[in-house]
Every structure is written in structure tokens, then in C-alpha cells.
Amino acid sequence: MSEQVPILQVKGLIKKYDDKLVLNKLDLQVDKGKVIAILGPSGCGKSTFLRCLNGLEDVQGGEILFENKSLVGKTTKWRDVRQRIGMVFQSYDLFPNLTVLENILLSPLKVQKRKREEAKKQALELLERVGLADRANDYPRQLSGGQKQRIAIVRALCINPEIMLFDEVTASLDPEMVREVLDVIAQLATQGMTMLIVTHEMNFAKLVADEVIFMDKGSILEQAPVEQFFSNPQTERAQQFLNILQF
Amino acid sequence: MLNSGISVLLEGNNLERLLNGLFVTLYVAFIAAIISIVLGFIIGIIRTSKNKLIQIPFRIYLELFRIIPILVWLFVIYYILPANFGLNLSSEVVALLVFSLWGIAEMSDIVRGAIISLPKHQMESSKALGLSTIQMYGYVLIPQALKRSIPPTINLITRMVKTTALLTMIGVIEVIKVGQQIIEVNNRSYPIVSFWIYGFIFFLYFCICFPLSRFSRKLEKKWAI
Prior knowledge:
Structural class of chain B: mainly alpha
Order of helices and strands of chain B: HHHHHHHHH
CATH superfamily of chain A: P-loop containing nucleotide triphosphate hydrolases
Oligomer: heterodimer
Helix content of chain A: 25-40%
Largest interface: A-B, 26 and 18 residues
Number of strands of chain B: 0
Number of domains of chain B: 1
Strand content of chain A: 15-25%
Low-confidence stretches of chain A: none
CATH class of chain A: Alpha Beta
Number of helices of chain B: 9
Number of strands of chain A: 10
Mean pLDDT of chain B: 88
Shape of chain A: globular
Largest sheet of chain A: 6 strands, mixed
Low-confidence stretches of chain B: none
Largest sheet of chain B: none
Helix content of chain B: over 70%
Distance between the termini of chain B: 54 Å
Radius of gyration of chain B: 22 Å
Structural class of chain A: alpha/beta
Mean pLDDT of chain A: 89
CATH class of chain B: Mainly Alpha
Shape of chain B: elongated
Distance between the termini of chain A: 46 Å
Number of helices of chain A: 9
Strand content of chain B: under 5%
CATH architecture of chain B: Orthogonal Bundle
Strand order of the largest sheet of chain A: 6-7-8-3-9-10
Order of helices and strands of chain A: EEEHEEHEHHHEHEHEEHH
CATH architecture of chain A: 3-Layer(aba) Sandwich
Number of domains of chain A: 1
């Protein structure tokens, strides 16, 4: 078998807010099926980085290649790209005016124009998998934070993306609910989903990630296989970061 | 004496005339309200645009109606347009025009406020799901904004009903004007008549505005987040 092209390549990515450099020449290669954890102190640009990959932030330089096609430039059809790069956010972002099922089916039916029967079948299967099949007709306000976040994941999965971006999805959850959400993501990892995960849960990163990138002040300081990063971080900043967290 | 005053209400067709006046009041207020709600909604959505060329003209329009009293607008359009532009409008048409322009301006601000007060991540997650701008407004933002707009909209309608009292100044025969006419005729024989007539008008306004205001407060409580 020939060498596979990475599904996502980032080369020299630069993001500025006015004159402030937020992302400084980031390079990253993501192979299909890999899970990458993005770690780093608050404000280091992790979330901004993810948002650039989904077109929620424009970039000021560099290149993003998704399946060898450039995503940088005005001609990018972000609506199409977003159906293939799903994203889940930190805030519970379900639409409160729609039921769980309507939330999940909105994009498959209206954006992807799929048949209702087929999309609904998939939605119910996914709900079953996250243990929430019985909540299909509830409104978001009737659910707990952890349940909402699991539904948000299902909603993103139901458009059949090739990559999933998770932006601190457990950061605003009650500690007791973190587990149920991380379980869902771990399950995805075993199914071979390509994922970029911004997280503060070190043990979780250790468990599901293949690779870690460690960011500080808008740069990638370290990129390493997960065992190597946690057992033997190369940079002083990463050592310091891990020490503080593992007190 | 008090008794003899109240009898004027029932004399001749006075009561019917007052109710007809009330009808004119309600007619102007509600037609203007409907126009305001429809057009104000559309302009409110347009005003959520980040484009300054769109924002600024609508902002100026809104401020003109907030800063300049409605009475002045009525005078300007009723007296100045015919004199200087040869445009003759009946007082009812002027009333509808001014009230609608005012209502559209206020309504657009209610709707704009309701949309931009929605959490930013509602927009971001719509985009992340691949929704187009129109789909995002249609399925996510507007349904949520609608709910938030209803209490202030009812409040606006109440204000419009009350402000119709100014229309007597440009000769619209609405409920207060009718009241004044009745008082003028009967003032000699029953000096207390103005108390009864205005009291009755007070009661009529109350009957219309109070239920509206209660309804709006109820909705506000029900939908408070």
C-alpha cells in the first residue's frame, strides 16, 4: 500500500487580531484515524487554532490543506467543509427552540438534503450509542449539562464528518458529568474517528490520544507521541506545565 | 349636580359618538401596529448586519423618531408637506404614516436587540453545522428572537394606543376630540360634565391598555430566562 496523504495539513499558519499575533507559524500533520490532543495553558491559542480549521476565524497567513485541498482564501466553500469537519464547543450550544431530535436532524435535512427516514434512523442509532435514545423528544432545557454535550456530539456526528474538533467540551461541566462525555469521545477514538481535542483533562488525553501537541503563546512548542510527551517532555515549559497539573 | 353631569353620556347619540371616536383611535393604533410589526421585523433583521453602510442610515432613522416628539412629526407632515410640496394628505393618513414610521423604527430596534442578545455560540454552532445565513436566521435565531420580542412589542402597542391622544391636534376625530366636542356643547348647562366625559375616556383607555400590559407582563415572567 502506498503512503497515505495526511487528511489535514497545516503549514505556517498565522492568525492575528489587529497587530497581535495569536498563532505564530503553526505546522501540523494529521493522519486519518489519528487522535491528537492539544494541550497548553489558557490563552495559548488552542481554541483559536481549532476555530481556524473550521473557518470560524480567518487566517492571515500560511496554508491549511484538507485532503490536499487548500482551505485558505476567499473561495473556500466553508459550508461544504464544515459538513466534513465537525466541531463541538465548550458552551452547551444546542438550539433551545428545537427538540433533541430536531437539533440533530436540522443539518442533515436542511443542509445535506437527506431523506428524513434515513437521517432519523442514524440519529436514533447515535442517540442509542450515547445512551440518550429516550430523550429524543425532549427540549434542551430538560437535560443536564453532560446530556446536552453528548447530544451536541451526536448532532455533529450525524452529518458524517471525517474529522471532529472538540474545543474543551468538558470545561464547563459539573465534574460528575465529565466522565459520561469523555466516554463518548473515547468510544469514537476506538472507532477510528480522526479527532483534534483541546482539553485540560490530562488523564483523558493520555488515554485516547495518539499524539500530543503542546502550545504556548501561539506556537507549538512540542509535538510528540502521547507516552513520550507525558513521560519525557522535551521543553522546559511543557515540564513546568505538567508539574503544575500533577501536584 | 354630579348626577346631572353623568346623564350627558347617555344623551342623544353621545355614547355612540364616543365609541366611534374610540374606534378611530384603535383603528389608527392597530393598523399602524400591524405595519410596524411586519416592516419592523424585516428591518430589525437587516439591522443585525455588521455592515456600517446598512447600520448607520437605520440608526439615524431610529434616532430621529426617538429624539423628535411625535407631535412635532405630526405637525411637520400635516402642515409642511401640503404647504411646501403641494401634497395634501388627510389627517388620518398623516396619523397612520407617522405612527407607522415611528413604530417601524421602534420595532426594528426590539427585533435587532432580541437577535443580538442571543448567545454568540448559537450562531457559531449553526455555522459549524454548515447552515447558510438564511437557514441560521430561519431555524435558529428568529424563532428564539421572536419569543424575546413579544413582551416589548406589546408594550410598544400600548404606547401607540396612548399616543393617539395627540392626533386630536391635527384634527383627527378620535375619542378625545369627540369628548371635547361633547364637553363644549354641554359645559354651560352641566359644568361638571368634563369630569364625567374624561373619566369615561380614561376608563376606555384603561380597558384597552390594561389587559395588554398584563398580558405582556405575564409573558415576560413566563419566558424569563
